Fold:
Amino acid sequence: MIDSPRVLLINPTITSHRHARFPLAVLSLAASLEGKYPTEIIDGNVDRNFIATALRAVGDGTVFAAGVTVMGGPQLRSAIAVSKAIREKAPGLPIIWGGAFPTVCPEATLNAPYVDYAVRSQGENTLLELLDTLAARRNEMMESICGLTWRLRGQVVHNKERKFSAASLNQMLPYDKLDNPRQYLTKTYLGRRTMGYQAALGCRFRCTFCGVASMFRGKMALPPAARLEQDLRYMQDRLGVDAIQFYDHNFFDREVDMVPLLEVLAKFQMPWWCFARSDALVNLSERSWTLVKKSRLRMAYIGAESPSDWLLHDIRKGTSRDQTLEAVEKCRSHGVIPELSFMLAPPQDPEGETEKTFEFIRLIKRVHPATEVMIYIYTPLPRRQDDKNPASARMAGELRDSAGRPVVFPRSADEWAEQQWVDYWCHQDAPWLTERLRRRIVDFTTVLGCRYPTIMDVRASAWGKSALRALASWRYRFQRYDDPWELRISRKLIRHWDPRVMSL
Ligand code: B12
Ligand code: SF4
Structure:
């Protein structure tokens, strides 16, 4: 082993500097390597020349491996760019990918000459074991590392799944490893210095379309209340944090376990945002709602997905149309804004389901106009090539594009980085959408977004939002969504934000 075997942990650019939040994946990995391997974090969201920075680092000969965190979509492209550059500069340096993309697509990840290892699901222990194996040059140990996908004599090998671990909940993240942690605090509708934070791990549900389900396979663990309090105290006193976006996959778990966490939040009273399920909110007792209100929950992001109970059943969501309506009502009566996300155009009936969802959104807006609406296209996860489950094989086999041809998913990271598949990953487009339907969805989204400008947009002025609202009102009222050219132009002038890009 070389004297100072540093490990680079890279968060490739995914968003603008202004929207950058704490790079939690690389911070979590750095925490788990502390005292074992020195680490250097490179964050492409704040360092816009992060590839040059990475090349400088590998150029000094003290780097032993490069770990890259990768979400599908736009981040895949910057991950490919940095990995290719490192491979060219230091061909022998192991390059390890982890995160949402390699977890869902491990074969495609390894089907690229610039990636050596794909780490699936939680990464802390897998990375440590992999580094130990590489450092000791004990290749024969490779197959015992759970959660790893690698190549053996040119063949892709998927080791056993790694069991869920809650160990990381006991450790504080090393925020001081970041260059100026304060630059990750952003002005939002919640506060002047909003932080992205994750309290709990995983989700006990297994909705078929969700990347979280592939990562945690129905497991979840909450942090001790004392840990949450310690972190929030640090953030408030040391960094001046005044609002929180919880990145927990699903914040509201069993009520009895949640109460101690809500009590901590009620002490701090910093406005907060989180992911929540409608069934959990509907079943919350009045006592807990009082705590929720006291703690200043401002908005809850609820995966409403669809107004059709058959589809909710099909994707194993476990909630219903009525629960969505009830959750909206509960939120309204307790002063919380519901942010509902919908998945349009499922392949079974793209047009019919889309129109039904438009109607449902209109109904919700009548009941509670402040409800925020996020519109996505339903894009089921690609099936893993080693997935032996007959139900997922059947579902994948039934997918057809708009011309009736079978849908063939990309087989390599480079193919996933093509525009149509980046759009697929971002839930913006799918092969079964016709041009007419695609246009209709964009037009509806434009009219809705102008008629009800989002509260999350802190950049557009109040007069600008009022002007958009007035301009869009006749189209919305008479359902004349087609080609809203005047709204498109006005939106550009008013510099209106798309909530799907900056909500998180
Ligand atoms: C924050 C966030 C963002 C931020 C990123 C901000 C930043 N960091 O700068 C922003 C807003 C930019 C973002 C964007 C997108 N996101 Co996002 N995002 C999240 C969120 C809420 C938290 C991610 C996080 O920090 N988790 C905490 C860390 C600790 O967990 P982790 O990343 O999973 O890391 C662990 C393992 O994955 C692994 N690991 C990760 N990296 C690495 C690297 C190595 C080397 C190793 C060994 C291991 C490893 O180890 C870590 C510790 O165990 C997740 C949901 C969630 N709660 O996870 C969605 C999530 C990851 N996003 C998702 C998606 C789809 C997107 C988008 C591509 C599309 C969209 N519509 O949201 C967009 C892109 C939009 C655009 N137009 O650019 C999906 C991914 C699903 C999937 N099928 O893969 C998720 C799971 C949300 C969901 N439920 O659908 N996102
Ligand atoms: S409840 Fe939400 S986070 Fe959990 S698996 Fe379903 S969609 Fe994913």
